[in-house]
């Protein structure tokens, strides 16, 4: 057994992050590596969901296997449009997963987020929600999306926010306002610039 190595998935993350951060990476490679990171983020988020023991009967002479299954239902909610780029990774990990949409845009005059649209599963209050948006800058749009989910009855601790890049400021805003929401990110950037 000493020659058996269990895959250490996080070791791939620095390599893929380096590829999307490089100014020499072409568009096709950027999309490829971004999709790979999205898949790793979804897999990591799923590791934080509770599971229940489940006895599985195998096709080998009726043997059983002590497995697990997710405790409760899962759905994805993408913050449109950028969050939609993360949906495929979720579908690759969870077949037939329900996906909702929230459209939030920054008001040009006030620079504050404004809700335009939401289409969510009717039973979302009973689900674990993976909120999808590739970037966490100030957190304004994502915080509003959390408000929408809470308004639909989703408990704060059942929300996981997945993003490729998080700013320290955005993560701090989240921790202060919604300390029970888990953020799953590929990396935390140095900070916001004057354009935020």
UniProtKB/TrEMBL annotation:
Tree of life domain: Eukaryota
Keyword Coiled coil: no
InterPro entries (UniProt xref): PRTase-like, PRTase_dom
Keywords: Allosteric enzyme, Glycosyltransferase, GTP-binding, Nucleotide-binding, Transferase
Pathway: Pyrimidine metabolism; UMP biosynthesis via salvage pathway; UMP from uracil: step 1/1
EC top class, as a word: transferase
GO BP field: pyrimidine-containing compound salvage
Family, per entry: Belongs to the UPRTase family.
Protein name: uracil phosphoribosyltransferase
